[in-house]
Design goal:
The chain is mostly helical. It is built from nine helices and no strands. The chain folds into two domains: 83 residues, Rna Polymerase Sigma Factor, Chain: A; 100 residues, Arc Repressor Mutant, subunit A (Orthogonal Bundle). Helix 1 crosses helix 2 and helix 7 crosses helix 9.
């Protein structure tokens, strides 16, 4: 690329980056954060710059908006395909259970030996009951329903259908995760 083309590219990217950010607010990308959808929009902007023909009837802005929107919609559709659900809703088995400094992971818990001692079984059942009681206190009815469906293996889309809510209208599962993380942190501190 010649210096003039690079300068023109940088100018257009700078000029339209806030437009891309504003457009990204309209979209939600499952399993990603807001910056990911913005990045998709920037890819669309780059494609518009690369492919725009000045001899056509449409303005660059209209063409860029079309390219940006199409790129974002394609990313959203790709992320919501059924084949991507395991990737978009995974839980790492190597993530520390309580906090980043914790040595105990979910894999450690899953691989733990099966308890057969009646005393330990009773203690575990009591702890489980305590956790269920605490969940009833800290979670709303909707959040408990969402958690129950999620633990049953339902996808975001299936949960939204079961609860008759739009998939993007509520982030109850995220609230549940934050509340559970806070609860586990407080529980760890009290031990």
């Amino acid at each position: 690329m010649m210096d003039g083309n690079i300068q023109a590219l940088e100018y257009l990217i700078f000029k339209y980056k806030n437009f891309v950010r504003a457009k990204a607010k309209s979209y939600f990308l499952i399993g990603a954060d807001r910056e990911d959808i913005i990045q998709e929009g920037m890819i669309g902007l780059y494609k518009a710059i690369r492919d725009y023909k000045g001899d056509k009837l449409s303005s660059f802005k209209a063409f860029a908006e079309l390219c940006i929107t199409r790129q974002m919609i394609t990313a959203v559709k790709t992320a919501t395909r059924q084949k991507h659900i395991p990737l978009n809703s995974y839980v790492s088995l190597d993530k520390p259970i309580y906090d980043e400094e914790s040595d105990r992971t979910l894999l450690d818990v899953i691989c733990g030996s099966k308890v057969t001692n009646p005393e330990e079984l009773l203690i575990n059942q009591e702890e489980f009951d305590d956790i269920e009681d605490k969940l009833s206190e800290i979670l709303s009815d909707l959040e408990r329903k969402v958690l129950r469906l999620y633990l049953d293996g339902r996808s975001y889309q299936e949960i939204s259908v079961d609860l008759k809510r739009h998939v993007k209208s509520d982030n109850a599962l995220q609230r549940v995760k934050r509340k559970l993380e806070r609860y586990l942190e407080l529980k760890e501190l009290s031990l």
